[in-house]
Amino acid sequence: MAKLFGNLHLVLAIGLVSAFALMFGFADSVAIDGNSIGRWLHLFFGVLWIGLLYYFNFVQVPGMPKIADEHKPAVTKTIAPSALFFFRWAALLTVVTGLWIAMINGYMVNALTFAGNPYENLIGAGMWMALIMAFNVWFIIWPAQKKVLGIVEASADEKAAAAPRALIASRLNTLLSFPMMYAMVSANLG
Fold first, then answer.
1. Which of 28, 151, 161, 175 could form a disulfide with 146 if both were Cys (CB 3.0 to 4.6 A apart)?
2. Is the model's pLDDT at 190 over the cut of 60?
């Protein structure tokens, strides 16, 4: 068992095979289409994105001052860059799969322009919050973190200025995540 669960790629492969077995096991009574696959992927990437957002805000940022200076490079050189890789790509893929779902279900334009019914407008509000959050990830948090973590060259002053920018954008994303998730789970669309 330790060999199985010690191999992340094997666990992921078995998880995917299990999901496909479940899908095809219920294929007679449940549709397997672009909508159901899109929703499944949207949920996966969304959980990964928001889970990492919460990890950064609830665990890593508050925990860093408690870590001895000689141990901080373990976080800043190994853990944070890896987590930020999955964080930014999960953000992008959450948005892409969400837009895909809205498009194939025919409510994307109404939702984004608030020109639809109350459910479309509610999910539109959630979509706009998610778009702002993804923008923050790619164009504020990631560029700032590259400086802070030494991934790109930056002076001490640039690093010092980048850290609060990243923190504010990350905290804004945490703030927006609560109403965004409410909008997403409460807009009962097809």
1. 151
2. no
